[in-house]
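From the pipeline queue, job 12 of 40. The input is one protein chain; the requested action is below.

Action: predict structure.
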Amino acid sequence: MAFLYHQGLEKISKGYLLGHRSVEYESLPFQQAKEIIDQIVRDKKKMGHNLKGMIQKLITLKVLEEDVFKKRYLIFDDTKFNTRAECIEVLEKAYFECRYPVPNPSYKKYPIAGSNGHWYPIGSSEPRDFAYHTGLKIIKKAEQDFNLTISKDKSTYSAMLKDEDWLRFRRIFFEDIL
């Protein structure tokens, strides 16, 4: 799941950053505009899958506060072991570790004292919570800055959604009071 949280936050971040650069392509013919957008997105120095870099750019643009990099969470808490990890770092590790075999998986950094086990940060709920709250801030800022309204009509997204699932999604994602 953490891979999907990374991907969701990445797409929301890229969406804002592309919207911010719309002057570069908005007056061009459709095909040329697509080529410019593709060039912007493929430039690994600017975007790629570098979530940390995108978040930094969003801080520079005043979309997010600098404290987003201070969002850390307790990994394991007992008297022998107490450390914190950066949420963005865990999401970036999730992106790679969920796709590729890596020689040094991140969980090895978090041994549980008095056992042979390790804590697995990628499988925790904190990456989800971080991606949700950060993504929602970016979406709200995009609505303001680009004069957008995100549709709350179920048919915009999928006719296959059950009504109760759609209502739950709206309560959680849009913070709707229904």
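Job complete. The beta strands are 72-77, 82-86.
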